[in-house]
Prior knowledge:
Blueprint: H1 10-35, H2 39-66, H3 74-100, H4 108-129, H5 136-166, H6 170-204
Amino acid sequence: MFGLIPKEEKFFVLFKDMTRNINEGALLLKDMLDNFTDPQGSQRKIKDVEHKGDSITHEIIQKLNKSFVTPLDREDIYALSGALDDILDLIDASAQRVVMYNVEKPTPEAKELAFIILKSCQTLEKGVSLLGGKLEHISECCVEVNALENEADRVCREAVSRLFDEEKDPIQLIKWKEIYETLERATDKCEDAANILESVVVKNA
Length: 205
C-alpha cells in the first residue's frame, strides 16, 4: 500500500539536505576539537550551518502545511524534522560552550564524543537516504545509532567521574561537566531521530 500512495518526493529531498547539513556541522565540530587552531572561527562556521538547518526545517514545515497528500504520516514528518533540527542545535551549543568557557585545550573525552556524534550523524544520513526506497535497511542504521548513543553515555559518565576525581578547580569542573553533557545530549537527539525512523519503518513496512 505504501508504494501506491501518491507521494510528495520533495520531503525526502529536504530530509536528505537536512542530514547532509547536520553532517557538515558534526564534521566542523570534530575538526574544531581535533585541531583547535581557531575555535572562534569554527564556532562561527557551525552557527552558519545551524542557520541553514533552521531554514530547511522551516521549508519542511511550510511544505507540510501546504501538502494534501504526504509520503509519511504528517506527525512523523514533523517529529523527524524537529529531532534532526535538535541535533544541530546541540552541536552548535557544544561549540558555543567551548568558546564561551575559554577552553585552553580539548580533552581526549571531548574529542571522542565529537567523533561519536559524527558517526551517529553519518549513520542517520544513511538511514534517511533510504526513505522512499527499501525501508528494511533503515532498521540497521537505527540499531547502530542506538549503539553509538550507549557508547557516548559510557564516555560521558567516565569523563565526568574522572573530572570529580582529578579536577581541583571547581570552575573548570563545572565548565567541563557541562561541555561533556551537552556533547552527550547531541547523541541523545540522534537516538531520538533514529527512533522516529524506526517507527516509520514499522508503520510502512
